Amino acid sequence: MANHSPLRRTLTRTVGYPLEALAVRTLFRLLGWLPADTASDLGGWVGRTLGPRLGGNSTVLRNLRRALPGLDAAAHRRLARDCWDNLGRTLAEYPHLKTIRAEWGQRVELSGTEHILGLETDGMPGVILTGHFANWELVAMTVHKCGLRMTAIYRAPNNPSVDKLLAEARGDLGTDLVPKGRTSAKGILATMRARGILGILADQKLNEGIAVPFMGHDAMTGTIAGDVVVRHGAVVVPVKVTRQPGGARFRIQAFPPLDLPALTGDRPADIRAVTVAVNELLEKWVRESPSQWLWTHRRWPD
Protein backbone atom coordinates (compact mmCIF):
# COMPACT_ATOMS: atom_id res chain seq x y z
CA MET A 1 0.00 0.00 0.00
CA ALA A 2 2.83 2.36 0.91
CA ASN A 3 4.43 1.78 -2.49
CA HIS A 4 1.41 3.39 -4.14
CA SER A 5 1.47 6.51 -1.95
CA PRO A 6 3.82 8.58 -4.16
CA LEU A 7 1.79 7.66 -7.24
CA ARG A 8 -1.45 8.52 -5.48
CA ARG A 9 -0.06 11.88 -4.41
CA THR A 10 1.14 12.59 -7.93
CA LEU A 11 -2.25 11.72 -9.41
CA THR A 12 -3.96 13.93 -6.85
CA ARG A 13 -1.77 16.91 -7.77
CA THR A 14 -1.80 16.41 -11.54
CA VAL A 15 -5.36 15.13 -12.07
CA GLY A 16 -7.43 15.47 -8.92
CA TYR A 17 -6.55 19.08 -8.10
CA PRO A 18 -7.20 20.44 -11.61
CA LEU A 19 -10.56 18.62 -11.78
CA GLU A 20 -11.53 19.90 -8.34
CA ALA A 21 -10.57 23.46 -9.32
CA LEU A 22 -12.56 23.17 -12.55
CA ALA A 23 -15.61 22.02 -10.60
CA VAL A 24 -15.31 24.90 -8.12
CA ARG A 25 -14.80 27.46 -10.89
CA THR A 26 -17.83 26.14 -12.79
CA LEU A 27 -19.97 26.14 -9.66
CA PHE A 28 -18.92 29.68 -8.78
CA ARG A 29 -19.72 30.82 -12.31
CA LEU A 30 -23.18 29.25 -12.23
CA LEU A 31 -23.95 30.68 -8.79
CA GLY A 32 -22.60 34.05 -9.90
CA TRP A 33 -25.29 34.27 -12.57
CA LEU A 34 -27.96 34.16 -9.85
CA PRO A 35 -28.94 37.09 -7.61
CA ALA A 36 -27.05 36.96 -4.31
CA ASP A 37 -30.10 36.12 -2.21
CA THR A 38 -31.21 33.40 -4.63
CA ALA A 39 -27.73 31.85 -4.61
CA SER A 40 -27.71 31.92 -0.81
CA ASP A 41 -31.15 30.30 -0.61
CA LEU A 42 -30.15 27.65 -3.15
CA GLY A 43 -26.97 26.89 -1.24
CA GLY A 44 -28.98 26.57 1.97
CA TRP A 45 -31.41 24.16 0.34
CA VAL A 46 -28.61 22.01 -1.07
CA GLY A 47 -26.82 22.04 2.28
CA ARG A 48 -29.76 21.01 4.43
CA THR A 49 -30.90 18.44 1.84
CA LEU A 50 -27.58 16.72 1.13
CA GLY A 51 -25.60 17.49 4.30
CA PRO A 52 -27.48 15.07 6.60
CA ARG A 53 -26.79 12.30 4.05
CA LEU A 54 -23.03 12.85 4.03
CA GLY A 55 -20.58 10.90 6.12
CA GLY A 56 -19.55 14.12 7.86
CA ASN A 57 -22.99 14.37 9.44
CA SER A 58 -21.95 11.75 11.99
CA THR A 59 -19.28 14.20 13.19
CA VAL A 60 -21.86 16.98 13.42
CA LEU A 61 -24.27 14.86 15.47
CA ARG A 62 -21.49 13.55 17.69
CA ASN A 63 -20.35 17.11 18.39
CA LEU A 64 -23.91 18.21 19.16
CA ARG A 65 -24.51 15.32 21.55
CA ARG A 66 -21.27 16.09 23.35
CA ALA A 67 -21.66 19.87 23.53
CA LEU A 68 -25.44 20.12 24.03
CA PRO A 69 -26.42 16.97 25.95
CA GLY A 70 -29.58 18.60 27.31
CA LEU A 71 -31.24 18.47 23.89
CA ASP A 72 -32.99 15.40 22.55
CA ALA A 73 -32.13 13.56 19.33
CA ALA A 74 -34.74 15.42 17.29
CA ALA A 75 -33.27 18.78 18.35
CA HIS A 76 -29.79 17.56 17.45
CA ARG A 77 -31.01 16.55 13.99
CA ARG A 78 -32.66 19.96 13.49
CA LEU A 79 -29.47 21.75 14.49
CA ALA A 80 -27.46 19.51 12.17
CA ARG A 81 -29.73 20.48 9.25
CA ASP A 82 -29.37 24.13 10.22
CA CYS A 83 -25.59 23.76 10.33
CA TRP A 84 -25.55 22.31 6.80
CA ASP A 85 -27.95 25.03 5.65
CA ASN A 86 -25.58 27.72 6.90
CA LEU A 87 -22.52 26.03 5.39
CA GLY A 88 -24.29 25.68 2.04
CA ARG A 89 -25.24 29.35 2.11
CA THR A 90 -21.72 30.42 3.01
CA LEU A 91 -20.20 28.47 0.13
CA ALA A 92 -22.84 29.74 -2.32
CA GLU A 93 -22.12 33.32 -1.24
CA TYR A 94 -18.45 33.22 -2.29
CA PRO A 95 -19.21 34.37 -5.86
CA HIS A 96 -21.24 37.22 -4.35
CA LEU A 97 -18.79 38.56 -1.77
CA LYS A 98 -18.09 41.56 -3.99
CA THR A 99 -21.85 42.14 -4.31
CA ILE A 100 -22.22 42.03 -0.53
CA ARG A 101 -19.40 44.56 -0.23
CA ALA A 102 -21.00 46.83 -2.87
CA GLU A 103 -24.43 46.57 -1.20
CA TRP A 104 -23.08 46.69 2.33
CA GLY A 105 -25.59 49.20 3.68
CA GLN A 106 -28.54 47.14 2.46
CA ARG A 107 -27.20 43.75 3.53
CA VAL A 108 -25.30 44.32 6.75
CA GLU A 109 -26.34 45.78 10.08
CA LEU A 110 -23.05 46.75 11.71
CA SER A 111 -22.49 47.93 15.26
CA GLY A 112 -19.47 48.59 17.45
CA THR A 113 -17.12 49.93 14.78
CA GLU A 114 -15.63 52.25 17.38
CA HIS A 115 -14.01 49.21 19.01
CA ILE A 116 -12.32 48.21 15.75
CA LEU A 117 -11.22 51.78 15.03
CA GLY A 118 -9.81 51.97 18.55
CA LEU A 119 -7.19 49.41 17.58
CA GLU A 120 -5.58 52.02 15.34
CA THR A 121 -5.48 54.76 17.94
CA ASP A 122 -4.53 53.00 21.18
CA GLY A 123 -0.89 52.51 20.17
CA MET A 124 -0.93 48.77 20.83
CA PRO A 125 -1.07 45.81 18.45
CA GLY A 126 -4.56 44.42 18.03
CA VAL A 127 -6.39 41.15 17.50
CA ILE A 128 -9.72 40.71 15.75
CA LEU A 129 -11.08 37.56 17.37
CA THR A 130 -13.82 35.58 15.67
CA GLY A 131 -14.99 32.07 14.86
CA HIS A 132 -16.73 30.12 12.12
CA PHE A 133 -20.16 31.70 12.57
CA ALA A 134 -22.61 32.52 9.75
CA ASN A 135 -20.42 33.79 6.86
CA TRP A 136 -17.10 34.32 8.64
CA GLU A 137 -15.55 35.84 5.48
CA LEU A 138 -17.37 39.08 6.31
CA VAL A 139 -15.12 39.80 9.30
CA ALA A 140 -12.23 40.81 7.03
CA MET A 141 -14.68 42.86 4.98
CA THR A 142 -15.79 44.65 8.15
CA VAL A 143 -12.23 45.64 9.03
CA HIS A 144 -11.75 46.83 5.45
CA LYS A 145 -14.94 48.91 5.67
CA CYS A 146 -13.43 50.55 8.76
CA GLY A 147 -10.47 51.63 6.62
CA LEU A 148 -7.94 49.37 8.35
CA ARG A 149 -5.57 46.63 7.18
CA MET A 150 -5.34 43.25 8.83
CA THR A 151 -3.14 40.18 8.73
CA ALA A 152 -5.27 37.04 8.90
CA ILE A 153 -4.02 33.58 9.78
CA TYR A 154 -5.96 30.94 7.88
CA ARG A 155 -5.85 27.29 6.90
CA ALA A 156 -5.21 27.18 3.18
CA PRO A 157 -7.01 24.48 1.16
CA ASN A 158 -4.80 21.58 0.14
CA ASN A 159 -5.50 22.48 -3.49
CA PRO A 160 -3.55 25.67 -4.39
CA SER A 161 -5.84 26.33 -7.36
CA VAL A 162 -8.92 26.33 -5.11
CA ASP A 163 -7.09 28.63 -2.70
CA LYS A 164 -6.52 31.02 -5.61
CA LEU A 165 -10.21 30.87 -6.61
CA LEU A 166 -11.28 31.74 -3.07
CA ALA A 167 -8.82 34.64 -3.02
CA GLU A 168 -10.29 35.92 -6.30
CA ALA A 169 -13.79 35.70 -4.83
CA ARG A 170 -12.75 37.67 -1.76
CA GLY A 171 -11.20 40.44 -3.82
CA ASP A 172 -8.80 43.03 -2.43
CA LEU A 173 -9.86 43.67 1.16
CA GLY A 174 -6.58 45.05 2.40
CA THR A 175 -6.02 41.78 4.24
CA ASP A 176 -2.71 39.95 4.17
CA LEU A 177 -3.56 36.24 4.29
CA VAL A 178 -0.91 34.11 5.99
CA PRO A 179 -1.39 30.32 5.75
CA LYS A 180 -0.98 28.37 8.96
CA GLY A 181 2.40 26.69 8.99
CA ARG A 182 6.06 27.56 9.04
CA THR A 183 5.62 31.10 7.72
CA SER A 184 2.77 32.10 10.02
CA ALA A 185 5.04 32.83 12.99
CA LYS A 186 6.99 35.38 10.92
CA GLY A 187 3.76 37.03 9.77
CA ILE A 188 2.44 37.24 13.32
CA LEU A 189 5.69 38.68 14.67
CA ALA A 190 5.93 41.27 11.89
CA THR A 191 2.33 42.36 12.53
CA MET A 192 2.85 42.68 16.26
CA ARG A 193 6.10 44.64 15.87
CA ALA A 194 4.35 47.02 13.46
CA ARG A 195 1.50 47.39 15.97
CA GLY A 196 -0.84 46.10 13.32
CA ILE A 197 -4.03 44.05 13.51
CA LEU A 198 -4.09 40.26 13.48
CA GLY A 199 -7.25 38.35 12.55
CA ILE A 200 -7.78 34.98 14.23
CA LEU A 201 -10.45 32.31 13.74
CA ALA A 202 -9.95 30.77 17.15
CA ASP A 203 -12.57 28.02 17.31
CA GLN A 204 -10.92 25.08 15.54
CA LYS A 205 -8.92 22.22 16.96
CA LEU A 206 -5.15 22.63 16.89
CA ASN A 207 -3.14 19.58 17.85
CA GLU A 208 -0.14 21.78 18.65
CA GLY A 209 -2.24 23.81 21.10
CA ILE A 210 -3.18 23.19 24.72
CA ALA A 211 -6.13 21.36 26.26
CA VAL A 212 -8.63 23.97 27.45
CA PRO A 213 -12.32 23.54 28.37
CA PHE A 214 -14.79 24.27 25.57
CA MET A 215 -18.50 23.45 25.79
CA GLY A 216 -17.86 21.36 28.90
CA HIS A 217 -15.01 19.26 27.50
CA ASP A 218 -11.28 19.73 27.08
CA ALA A 219 -10.38 20.65 23.51
CA MET A 220 -6.98 21.21 21.95
CA THR A 221 -6.91 24.95 21.35
CA GLY A 222 -4.52 27.27 19.57
CA THR A 223 -2.69 29.80 21.72
CA ILE A 224 -2.02 32.56 19.18
CA ALA A 225 -4.29 35.03 20.98
CA GLY A 226 -2.71 34.19 24.33
CA ASP A 227 0.81 34.45 22.90
CA VAL A 228 0.32 37.91 21.40
CA VAL A 229 -1.47 39.24 24.47
CA VAL A 230 1.24 38.01 26.84
CA ARG A 231 4.28 38.74 24.65
CA HIS A 232 3.16 41.91 22.89
CA GLY A 233 0.36 43.42 24.98
CA ALA A 234 -2.16 43.00 22.15
CA VAL A 235 -5.72 44.24 22.61
CA VAL A 236 -8.39 41.68 21.64
CA VAL A 237 -11.60 42.91 19.97
CA PRO A 238 -14.21 40.17 19.37
CA VAL A 239 -16.32 40.36 16.19
CA LYS A 240 -19.35 38.11 15.66
CA VAL A 241 -21.33 37.57 12.44
CA THR A 242 -24.97 36.46 12.69
CA ARG A 243 -27.04 35.48 9.68
CA GLN A 244 -30.37 37.27 9.24
CA PRO A 245 -33.50 36.22 7.30
CA GLY A 246 -33.80 37.13 3.63
CA GLY A 247 -30.80 35.51 1.97
CA ALA A 248 -27.33 37.05 2.11
CA ARG A 249 -28.04 39.42 5.00
CA PHE A 250 -26.17 39.72 8.27
CA ARG A 251 -25.74 41.42 11.61
CA ILE A 252 -22.12 42.06 12.57
CA GLN A 253 -21.23 43.08 16.11
CA ALA A 254 -17.84 44.34 17.23
CA PHE A 255 -17.55 44.21 21.00
CA PRO A 256 -15.42 46.13 23.50
CA PRO A 257 -11.92 44.74 24.07
CA LEU A 258 -12.06 41.36 25.77
CA ASP A 259 -11.73 41.60 29.54
CA LEU A 260 -8.73 39.39 30.23
CA PRO A 261 -7.15 38.17 33.48
CA ALA A 262 -4.32 40.27 34.88
CA LEU A 263 -0.93 38.95 33.81
CA THR A 264 1.14 37.35 36.57
CA GLY A 265 4.53 37.04 34.89
CA ASP A 266 4.16 33.27 34.63
CA ARG A 267 4.07 33.12 30.82
CA PRO A 268 2.62 29.61 30.31
CA ALA A 269 -0.03 30.21 32.98
CA ASP A 270 -0.91 33.62 31.54
CA ILE A 271 -1.19 32.23 28.00
CA ARG A 272 -3.48 29.50 29.30
CA ALA A 273 -5.63 32.02 31.20
CA VAL A 274 -6.10 34.13 28.05
CA THR A 275 -6.91 31.01 26.02
CA VAL A 276 -9.52 29.99 28.59
CA ALA A 277 -11.11 33.45 28.33
CA VAL A 278 -11.19 33.17 24.53
CA ASN A 279 -12.88 29.77 24.68
CA GLU A 280 -15.41 31.03 27.22
CA LEU A 281 -16.43 33.81 24.84
CA LEU A 282 -16.67 31.48 21.85
CA GLU A 283 -18.72 29.02 23.90
CA LYS A 284 -21.11 31.82 24.81
CA TRP A 285 -21.53 32.64 21.11
CA VAL A 286 -22.11 28.99 20.20
CA ARG A 287 -24.82 28.69 22.84
CA GLU A 288 -26.43 31.91 21.58
CA SER A 289 -26.44 30.80 17.92
CA PRO A 290 -25.84 27.03 17.75
CA SER A 291 -27.41 26.72 14.29
CA GLN A 292 -24.86 29.13 12.81
CA TRP A 293 -21.65 27.54 14.04
CA LEU A 294 -19.51 25.14 11.99
CA TRP A 295 -20.19 21.84 13.77
CA THR A 296 -18.54 19.84 10.97
CA HIS A 297 -15.08 20.26 12.51
CA ARG A 298 -13.71 17.54 14.81
CA ARG A 299 -13.31 19.91 17.73
CA TRP A 300 -12.96 17.29 20.48
CA PRO A 301 -11.10 13.97 20.70
CA ASP A 302 -13.27 11.04 19.59
UniProtKB/TrEMBL annotation:
GO terms for molecular function: Kdo2-lipid IVA acyltransferase activity. It is an enzyme of class 2 (transferase). InterPro entries: LipA_acyltrans. GO terms for biological process: glycolipid biosynthetic process. It is found in: Cell inner membrane. Keywords: Acyltransferase, Cell inner membrane, Cell membrane, Membrane, Transferase. GO terms for cellular component: plasma membrane. Its main location: membrane. Its EC number is 2.3.1.241. The keyword Cell membrane applies. The keyword Cell membrane applies. This is KDO2-lipid IV(A) lauroyltransferase.
